[in-house]
Amino acid sequence: MGFNPIVFEAQPGVGGLWNHTNKTTKLQTPKQAYQFSDFPWPSSVKEDFPDHNQVMEYIESYAHHFDLLQYIKFNSRVIGIEYKGASDEDMASWDLWGGTGASFSPLGKWNITVLKDIHRKSTQVYQVEFAILCIGRFSEVPNIPEFPPNQGPEAFDGKVIHSMHYAYMDDADAAKFVKGKRVTVVGIQKSALDIANECAMVNGVENPCMVLYRNAHWSFPHYFPWGVPFALLYFNRFAELMTHKPDEGFMLSLLATLLSPLRWLQSKFVESYLRWKLQLKKYHMIPNHSFNKDFSAGTIAVTPENFFQRVEEGSIILKKSATFSFCKNGLMIDGNTAPLETDVAILATGYKGDEKLRNIFVSSKIQKNIFGASNTTVQLYRECIHPRIPQLAIIGYSESFSNLFTFEMRCKWLAHLLRGTFKLPQIKEMEVDALRWEKYMKDHSGQYYRRSSLQGYEMQPET
Ligand SMILES: Cc1cc2nc3c(=O)[nH]c(=O)nc-3n(C[C@H](O)[C@H](O)[C@H](O)COP(=O)(O)OP(=O)(O)OC[C@H]3O[C@@H](n4cnc5c(N)ncnc54)[C@H](O)[C@@H]3O)c2cc1C
Ligand SMILES: NC(=O)c1ccc[n+]([C@@H]2O[C@H](COP(=O)([O-])OP(=O)(O)OC[C@H]3O[C@@H](n4cnc5c(N)ncnc54)[C@H](OP(=O)(O)O)[C@@H]3O)[C@@H](O)[C@H]2O)c1
């Protein structure tokens, strides 16, 4: 659209988190739904779920095809961004975003401080009229559980790492790291399932991998429950009508209420298949909540191939415990007096994407605006714009079934906003709208609402 962006990228190349994945990481989303709208996957990629190398190649070829590398400054970590312009008091009195409602306002600029040389700690400050944060939420800032004194990793004689550090290792080093060791993986989402599966492939039944989890979640082996395409159940306009959503109006609300038994049936249909196919009862793995809840919250994962066969043969052991702590020889869990003897603990406990976002702002006032209270979401109008932070957008914070697709749609929306095709509503209206979506997330995602997932309410192209 005729802009001249500068992209600061901390790593030496494109691809983001796809540069550091586990050996067996693949797309969980079918490739037809995980593609740029103007750049289909090459015909040489036959798989519906390409592996991490293929995803990297796809992203790299996109950057080359559209000649994007010319805009990117690699090895350039942004260590802080600071709004320079109107005072906090003036900003508090604004009715319109940025004071004028325009994306490019004469009232302020952003100073972007970039670390140019990590060894000499030399920095350079760039001044820009608009900043877009695309820093990812599943990397760099791990969620490490907190423990009482002397019950954390410091009390343990073995090694403790986060799943992120396992993913950073190359494949051979990762296998060497777990080989012949008693490994406990904490968590039972996608990182945990994949790592446990890889450990079991390396160690077999001699050294089973323990998976310690506190809440079971639905996971699915493929997208055809009882032979019915998942997209027919969830990713179409009819399925959308079954979901209550903000600002839906009387007729749509009535329709969603009338269709709620169908929504319930849809969930039970998938659950019945997963219970049967994965024999969840046998492994005490039936979640306490519905499939639809996990689906809306974005807390479902694709089960790695043969995962439950490995549980059956004994190379993976599943253990449920609401809490855990460390001792000299391993991990203490609820109801056990002896520790789970362990050499290596891998915390597949997720990330603190909100902290990562907060910390990039220099101003404590803006940090507070972004992070909010612990019982709120990061409030973004259209999942892009914070009503109280001018001349700035965030792409990549809220989750969906196919992030690449929804991120791209937001990028298009944002580009039109920057071009002036449309104007944002008043700050108060955007805040009310963001609050409505927060309520939606709380209603549909339960305790996981801070993931800001819109997965339960999404249509996908070509699925
Ligand atoms: C292992 C894994 C697999 C996934 N698989 C799927 C999937 O199958 N389907 C799906 O829809 N989603 C998947 N996701 C979700 C994934 O987050 C998105 O699909 C997408 O790849 C995220 O892209 P991003 O650009 O927002 O973030 P990232 O890929 O994390 O990229 C952020 C970039 O910002 C850079 N950066 C960060 N901070 C700074 C800074 N301060 N200064 C300069 N540069 C900085 C980083 O170096 C990085 O290159 C997966 C996530 C993970 C962790
Ligand atoms: N395509 C792929 O193959 C792939 C691979 C890896 C990751 N991903 C994506 O990357 C994102 C992050 O996935 P992730 O698996 O790393 O993290 P995650 O989805 O946030 O899961 C974190 C896990 O850790 C548990 N946990 C968190 N804090 C804990 C604590 N204090 N004590 C015990 N358990 C705790 C959670 O349990 P509770 O549920 O009880 O909170 C959950 O099981 C997701 O979007 C995922 O889809 C994709």
Automatic annotation (TrEMBL):
Keywords: FAD, Flavoprotein, Monooxygenase, NADP, Oxidoreductase. InterPro entries: FAD/NAD-bd_sf, Flavin_mOase, Flavin_mOase-like, FMO-like. It holds the Pfam family FMO-like. GO terms for molecular function: flavin adenine dinucleotide binding; N,N-dimethylaniline monooxygenase activity; NADP binding. The keyword Oxidoreductase applies. It is an enzyme of class 1 (oxidoreductase). Its EC number is 1.-.-.-. Its cofactor is FAD. Belongs to the FMO family. This is Flavin-containing monooxygenase. It comes from Aquilegia coerulea. The lineage of its organism: Eukaryota, Viridiplantae, Streptophyta, Embryophyta, Tracheophyta.
